[in-house]
Predict the structure.
Amino acid sequence: MKMTFRWYGSQIDPIPLKYVKQIPGMSGLMGLLDKPAGVVWEEDEIKALVDEVHAAGLEFEVVESVNVHEDIKMGLPTRDEYIANYITTIRNLAKFGVKVIVYNFMPVFDWLRTDLAREIPEDGSNSLYFNEKDLGEMGPMEIVRRTAEDSKGFTLPGWEPERLALLETTLKQYEGITPDMLRENYKYFLERVCPVCEEVGVRMACHPDDPAWPIFGLPRIAHSQEDYDKIVKLYDSPANTLCLCTGSLGSNPENDIPSIIRHFGEMDRIGAMHVRNVKYLGYRHFREAAHLSSTGDLDMFEIMKAIYDTCPDTYIRPDHGRMIWDEEGRPGYGLFDRALGACYLNGIWESLCKTYGQKG
Ligand code: DNO
C-alpha cells in the first residue's frame, strides 16, 4: 500500500509540499495540473510538476484527475477530438512515471454537498454535509452559487468555473440521455483509451458518484457494486479499474464497503482508494466524519483489512478531512485532519502487517 496525499499544485494549494513530506509514511501525491477538461497536458508542464514533487522527496505515480469532457459523456460528434487529446495526455503522463489516472464519468456535477462547513456538535470542528431535502429546495443553479460562495475563494475540485459557466446549456443537453446511453458513451471512451493504457502501463480508475445516487434527474451510473460490475465489463482489462472511494459509495448505507472492496480487489480492478468515514443522519442525509471508525458509521479496520487481503499494493489517500484547529483551507482538503487520517490508517496497516505478515 502506498499512502498518498491529494495536492493541487503550488499555484493554488496553500499546503507546501514539505508539510506533506513531513506526514509520517507519506510516499507521494495524487496530484494534478490545473487544466480544463479536453485539453492536452503537455510534456513540459508535466515535467515541471513532477520535478517539483520529486525535489520534495515525494512520488508522483497517481494523477487525480484528468477530467473527461462533457462531449465525450454525451456522445457528441466532437468527442473524437477530445478522446484523442485524452490519449495524448495518457501517453505524456506515462513518460513521467504516472501509473494511475483517477477520473469520473459523472454528468455535469462531480461531488455535491449542501453545506461545506457544517459544525460537528460533538467537538466544534466542521465538515462537508449533505441533506437531500435542502437540495430539493435549492435546484442546480442555486447549489452552484452557494458552493462557490462557501468555498472561501478556493477552486473546488469538480467545480471548475469553466465547467459551471455552461451549466444551464449542459443540463438541457442531458435531458433524454438515459443511464444506458451514458454507459454506451462510456464504453466508446474506454474502448479507445484502455488499449493505450495497456500499452504504456497506466490504469484508469473511475471515481464513484458522490453522493451515491442520481441527482437533479441526471443519469448516474457508478454508485453501487452492480454499477461497477457493468463498468468493468464495458472493457475487460486490468487497465479499466475503480478508484474506490469509501465515503462516496458509503454515503448510501446499502453499500457494504468492505465487501465491495473484496469483490473488486479479488478481480484486480482497484486502481486507487480514497478512504474516509461518513456519519449517517437520516435518509440521503449525512456528514463527513473524522477517519476514526467510532466517529462515523464505516468500519475503517474492516476496510483496511479488505484492502490488505485483496489489493495490498494499491494507492490510498486519506480523503476529505474536517476543518480543525482553526485551519483556513480548501473545504475537505485541509492539512491537519487529513494528516491525522493518514497516521490512523497507517497505524491500522502496521497492526495488520504485524498480525498477519508484511504486505504492500
Ligand atoms: C472529491 C473528489 C472527486 C474526485 C473526482 C475524480 O473530493 O474525490 O472530485 O477527485 O471525482 O475525478
Notes: The chain is about 40% helix and 15% strand. The first helix runs from residue 17 to 21.
